[in-house]
Amino acid sequence: MLSAILGGVLIGSAALLLYAVSGRIAGISGITYGLLWPVPGDRAWRGLFLAGLLGGGWLAVLAGARLPAVPLPADAGGITLLLAAGLLVGAGTRLGNGCTSGHGICGLARLSWRSLAATLAFMLTGMLVATLLRPALVGALP
Amino acid sequence: MIARLAPLLSGLLFGGGLVLSGMADPARILAFLQLGPGWDPSLLLVMAGALAVALPGFAWLRRRAQPWCAERFADPRGAVDRTLLLGAVLFGAGWGLAGYCPGPALVSAGLLQGAGLLFVPAMLAGAALVRRSR
What is the pTM of this model? Predict the structure, then answer.
């Protein structure tokens, strides 16, 4: 409970820091895709942010944060499920211009109606799919 | 200097926050998305913690003319359109299938976990497909 709130405070502080200094939205999908398909001169900060993101994960684990149960593809529901989910997440975040961080945190903090609509849409869809579809697919796919 | 340091530090805080909050573990995400017995509200607490900082912080910042080290604040606005909603629904479907959104997936791949290492290339391929078709 407490670690969830504290982790959230760290994430919110991260978003605030990037906006205060760089005026950028800390949306992970947008930052990543902008690094892969860059606009000239717009690359360095993205690389630094993502290096920090991975480094922060490592540091938290080294500092003793409870390691998420090292998920192997089998734990995550199988290889087919993971690949299909990855394709959907990539296509969806590209099409919808954002994910949990860009819309769900930064967008809501900016009071953006688009982000509120997107957040409600992906939350509801995620709940429907996780509740109704996933249990039927886990183990049924190769 | 600060212009370079801030994105790095922001990333560090973000990645640390994801692991500390438990959100780098897809099982915790699925325990929130899957309604029923054993429902885990953690994800809402993480969002509440983040917004408790970001909402007042962004409101305060936006009264300033510009960021410390940049010309302007990014502030994309626009109508809620079909593309946005279709994208959000596709994303939600993938999120509900495996419990990974982009941040936790990248952190998991960075920790050399098999699931993340498999998920991230598929995610980038999905993004590339959309980019190609537009």
Answer: 0.96
Closest approach of chain B CAs to the CA of A44, in angstroms? 8
- Does the beta-carbon distance from A52 to B102 stay under 8 Å? no
Q: pLDDT tens, B96-122?
A: 999 999 999 999 999 999 999 999 999
The tokens 């994800």 sit on which residue? Answer: B43
* Separation in Å, CA B62 to CA A113, B57, B73: 17, 9, 8
Distance CA A8, CA B33 (A): 18
CB contact under 8 A, B7 and A45: yes
Q: What is the pLDDT of residues A67-107, one digit of tens each?
A: 766 677 777 788 999 999 999 999 999 999 999 999 999 99
Q: Which residues of B touch A13 (CB under 8 A)?
A: 13, 17, 53
Contact B49, A92 (CB under 8 A): no
